[in-house]
Amino acid sequence: MRMWTIWLLVFVLVGPVFGSPTVGSSEVQFVVVQKWLIDDGFDSKWIQSLYTRPNVKFDTASARSYFRHREATLDYDQFTSDRSIEAARRYMDTHTQALHYTESVYGVDREIITAILLVETRLGTYTGKRSIFNTLSTLSALRDPSTRDAFWEEMPKTPRLNRDKYRKWAAGKSSWAYRELKAFLKYASKQGMDPTEIYGSYAGALGIAQFIPSSIVVYARDGNEDGKVNLFHHEDAIASVGSYLKRNGWRPGIDRKKASKVIYRYNHSEYYVNTILKISDILTQM
């Protein structure tokens, strides 16, 4: 059965709550997600208005990216090239005040913070082009068994992925995505941002520091003291990285073994941890 047919069936069952959108529209595709959000206390008019925006769509490509991504294939050596290190050095010079402030408040070395921002978004020059709202809504929709099965039919089949593995992955990932979607909407509403106009990675991370929404709620800080937390602002991103690392165990003078464990909490990859430490070592020696 084609995916749009499943969505139409879901709409027939629960659609009267939301009116009568046309077949194939985003409102039909996400009707179950809208119901969940409203049931969880979000304003019904706001939620319905978001899902009728022309830029809101079921983002199959982002969901598929999870099956193509392989951490070991990422080229981490690019971040220790002369060009990258020089860019990091200039960044530290440009944002010396924010780095100094964060270092004094949170006790996190400026070289570590700079290294993380370099690897995450090339120091804010590439923060991602995926709609966070579309990505999290799409993955959240997989909580619905009919949508989950329909998406499987649309997936390109590979030897390493069978239906049982897919169902197990989709069940866990969709529950995670729905929690992140709720955190994202709360964050956007509190900061006066349009959630449909915020872009980031296929994994739902956003801003210069690439925080997932639930991490923003807990760790993000207003580094430039303008009354808002905007991780697309360098001062906020820098302070938020410092806040995250401190809350997860970073201390001034921390030894390398403990530092590795803290950085691993930021990104669960040994490749990532080793690269961050290597960049920091190079910057410290300059």
What features would you describe in this structure?
The chain has 286 residues and is mostly helical. It has two domains: 3-57 and 133-179, no CATH class; 76-128 and 202-285, Lysozyme (Orthogonal Bundle), CATH 1.10.530.10. It is built from 15 helices and two strands. It has helices at residues 3-14, 26-29, 31-39, 44-50, 60-68, 82-94, 96-106, 110-121, 132-141, 145-154, 163-191, 213-219, 234-247, 256-266, 270-285; strands at 130-131, 199-200. Strands 1-2 form a two-stranded antiparallel ribbon. The protein is globular and about 55 Å long. The model is unreliable at 1-25 (pLDDT under 50).
Structure in a nutshell:
By secondary structure, the chain is mostly helical. It has helices at residues 3-14, 26-29, 31-39, 44-50, 60-68, 82-94, 96-106, 110-121, 132-141, 145-154, 163-191, 213-219, 234-247, 256-266, 270-285; strands at residues 130-131, 199-200.
Helix content: 55-70%
Which CATH architecture of the largest domain would you pick? Orthogonal Bundle
Strand count: 2
- Uncertain segments of ≥5 residues (pLDDT<50)? 1-25
Cα shape: globular
| Secondary-structure element order, N to C | HHHHHHHHEHHHEHHHH
CATH topology category name of the largest domain: Lysozyme
Count of domain modules: 2
Strand order of the largest sheet: 1-2
Overall pLDDT: 88
Radius of gyration based on Cα positions: 21 Å
Structural class call reads mainly alpha
DSSP summary: helix tally: 15
How far apart lie the N and C ends? 61 Å
Main CATH class of the largest domain: Mainly Alpha
The major sheet is characterized as: 2 strands, antiparallel
Strand content: under 5%
